[in-house]
Amino acid sequence: MTSILLAQRFAATTTLAGASALLGIALAQAQTASPGTANSGATALQTLVVQGGGAIEGAEGVVETDGYVAKSGRTATKTDTPVAETPQSMSTVSRKQLEDRKPQNLSEAVSYTPGVRIGQYGAEPRFDAFKVRGIDLTYTGIFRDGLRQISSPNGLFRLEPYGVEAISILRGPAASIYGASSSGGIVDIISKRPTEEQFREVEMQYGSYGRMQGAFDVSGPLDPENTVLYRITGLARDARSEISAIKDDRLFIAPAFTWQPDEGTKFTLLGEYMDSTTGGTWGYINNYGPAGSIGATPVYGGDARFNDFDQEQARIGYELEHELSDNVTLYHKLRFSDLSTQQEWVFADFPGMVKEDNSGVASDNYLKTDFETGALDHQLITGIDYSYMKYKSLQGSGPDLFTDSFTYVPELTYKETQRQNSVGIYAQDQIEFGAWRLMAGLRHDWLNSEFTTDSSAGFSHYSRDDSETTGRIGLGYVTPWNVMPYVSYGTSFVANPGVILSTGGVSEQAEPTIGEQYEVGVKYALPDHNALITASAFNIDQENASVYETSSGVNLLRQLDMRSRGFELEASASLDNGLSLIAAYSYNDVKITKLTAETVGNQLNSTPYHTFSLWADYEFQSGTLEGLGMGAGVRYLGSSFGDNQHTPVLDNEARTFVDASLRYDLGKLNPSMDGVRLQVNATNLLDEVKQICTTGFCYFDEGRKVVGSLRYRF
Length: 714
Known about the structure:
The protein contains 5 helices and 39 strands. By secondary structure, it is mostly beta strands. The longest helix has 11 residues, at 19-29. The protein has one domain (2-310, 329-407, 444-550, 583-713): TonB-dependent receptor, beta-barrel domain (Maltoporin, Chain A, Beta Barrel), CATH 2.40.170. The protein has a 22-stranded antiparallel barrel. A hairpin with a 2-residue loop joins β20 and β21 (350-373). 5% of the residues lie in helices and 55% in strands. This is Ferrichrysobactin receptor. One of its GO terms (biological process) is siderophore transport. Residues 73-105 are annotated as: Disordered. Keywords: Cell outer membrane, Ion transport, Iron, Iron transport, Membrane, Plasmid, Receptor, Signal, TonB box, Transmembrane, Transmembrane beta strand, Transport.
């Protein structure tokens, strides 16, 4: 069992182991003021606008954006709350950002968001692995349309950005309304939904490493009364990566339908099917020779003859909103998901295979009740949610049997299964008293897990029941100048079923991971401009996180306590003169408080103290250059340590990446080509590639990548 896990571990290399000033200049150059703000001091939401081709910004009631600027959303509170009045730090990657930057995966999509650390495994193609505030969200922080995204150890849903309307990142604990989730926060992926405006587009892409892709997106009403709406989004791709043995192929289809028989009822059906293939082995041969030569070599660790990581995923679900009365609204969501993977891997001529299937159900049901008690206005939600997950994993590895006519397939000699049920009840009250904004929530969860292993070493069965109460409270004050200072406190927990620790010869499932956060911050919605500036300082204490530790020279599963402190600054704007920008700075001090004796007090590996990013986009509004748009971005990643022991030769140098975009609407040149847009996007334009080490194993940054696209909206 141990040899299989270690071989798999290394075969996969690791499964996961100045903004304000710039904004001030931009505002000074704005030609026309944006819509105003409420004279009561509370930020007024701007209405949604319709861009060329009928693309609506955001999904009404779920997330609303104006260009790059988030206006309101449900991710933080499950109610339609203005972002500028939410007493917790959050960011939104809008549809316009996604269209301007053309990210190819979830990690790239959130790369300009404060507090987010991507790239710790180089250009890892298999999983969207990233941290928020120094805490891994890969397994426990990804949500889809407000529901937990079911995952298993080797089965995580892959994201197709073309099927996404927006991405909301809530930093800090949200267990009081979402249950078991990361203390670093959650990333809520909002699916594209049907629109009342007729919308049609097709797009072709060609890019680096032989990338060829075609996509379409069509939406609109099926009847004159807009009672039934539809949307179908699809994509096909044939591509490789900078390592020729790694594919990036994909077939994707996402149908959606909305039925709204009256003003108080909306039923939306959301589906997805995707068949994708990438590389089963990621990483390079590492040299563990003399102290000065430890690190990655340019030799790829896998083999193209046995390297496919095939994954089929599907989900089908619905959302119901129904007004029971003038003051009470029912919200009901349910989604079924299914995922099947087969991963072939090779590392240092040692092959293996993992076949894993998981399926699950996630459901959330709550009532929102609006009422008054004297001078207090309440939005009370009371709810119950349920999730169920099961998975089966078959694993095997073999000896060094590689020849020029390699045909070996490892025997799958190890099996593990897991079933997990979770039920939670919760209540949250949002109270307005003049300019005061109070948010308070409480939740209790019950989790049950059954976990089995079966191998040549024998059969083992583990079961565990966990029960936990979590809460959150936040208080803000909206001044007449649209500045809202706030304070908040929240707790979180995540069960660790299936994570088996051996202590003193006794094996048992790991204790749940628990966390708490204190946060203070300020949000400023600039009057008469479509711009938002936020700043926050935080302290997170987390206990019993399950991690692999290499201090003994072997990957051992341990539980980690840590303290994450830091400061974040973010600015976003989309102005009437055609300028849009997002800027972010983060300082993050993540100290190990319990792991091994030699690591206590050290900064967590691959976690830089300083990160900074700036993306600016300008579109000419008139004159001979009307229709031309250009964008440029810089991402700075500070130095960090390559392992928790701070081995000097593994230290990661600071690095800076430059991205760029250029586009032109041909309809401005010739009216007969209205709706046609040419665009070129580049990431890491200057080809900055350095070694990056995480948990003692080293990789390389992804090099320059260029993608050209031709889009037609009609």
